[in-house]
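ok trying again, last paste got cut off:
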Amino acid sequence: MARNVVIIGAGPGGLAAARALRSYLDPSDRIVVIDRHDEQRLGVTLLLIMRGWREPEEVMIRPSRVLAGTAELVVAEALQIDPTARRVETSVGSITYDALVLASGAEVVPELIPGLASALENGVAGHCWTLPAALQLRERLHCFPGGRVLIVIARLPYKCPPAPYEVALLVRDLAEERGIGQSIEVTVVTPEPSPLAVAGPAIGEQLTRLLEARGVSVRTGEQLSSVDPRHREVVFASGSRELFDLLIVVPPHRAPALVRDAGLADGDWVPASLETMRTSVDGIWAIGDVAAVRIRENLLVPKAAVFAQQQAEVAARDIARWLGYDAPEPEVRAFGRCWFLTGRGMAGAIEGDFLAEPRPAVTLSSPSPEGFTQMEAELASWLAQDPGR
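nice, full thing came through this time. structure:
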């Protein structure tokens, strides 16, 4: 009897899961991918767009073309998950499943910080964790006359962990290009004990030196409490306050309401097994940004596309075996590389094995033109999966 496997989300993880599943399942089995849009971009491209180096259409793929012959794309809003009936309600009807993969990503929720949503609406604050926001911030930066730019990480965890530090360097790079480098001050504030703490203290020290060498200061251990748009001031839980001329914020992230309303989340995220990507609910797996995949008691797999794609393969193998197919055992991995953009054709790379003991074995390579070229080649390879480009 043919089986139905449903994947919510057509991002890097969802696409990878669909392709992997097709290689393990019977040709008669149906694989359905649900997403609100027939377009996807890698997270790094939002930085390229913000900086003005790429336009949205240049770095976009169509999942319908990528999935042709592999899975069926349903362009719709997933409205409700019924784990008991094994059914997903969408804006175009109901879809039943034998196995469900949550690859829905994370949503940004600025309203969780008092005053932040208002600051974003009236233009005194911006971010680049969605395409519309990245475009708005690009316009704001290109007419920014100078002053204090405060970059604040509101909550942990969030998508693309290196991104706020890249933003800081790209803001400085653009200011120098515009001839206002001497009239701009850039500061990054994070609740972490050191920048990019998930990669370990050595990377934090190296990253701090890199930032400071380019005129970016760093404050650690500060939790954002509220934003005062009128007076352009942020307040931290410690009671300290900082004025700004432009606030760039990493908004709070959490699992989408669809997932939380179905009772699949524990707090803000869906716990999933590192070995299988199974959730606590039979027949449901979670991968990518929506999932909390624990490596150790105090360490989660970072939320980045490279890890979502690895988790997709783990989930696909486990689903196939769960359905009775002779698939390989899941191979647990958490090795990844994130490009680190620093400006004007320069990029380094943060890469390593997060499963290494007793702590993640991660390195940060020096920014270089070669690194930027390799980043562009990797992006071109990802775009090439769309046969219509």
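cool. The first helix runs from residue 12 to 24. The chain has a mean pLDDT of 96.
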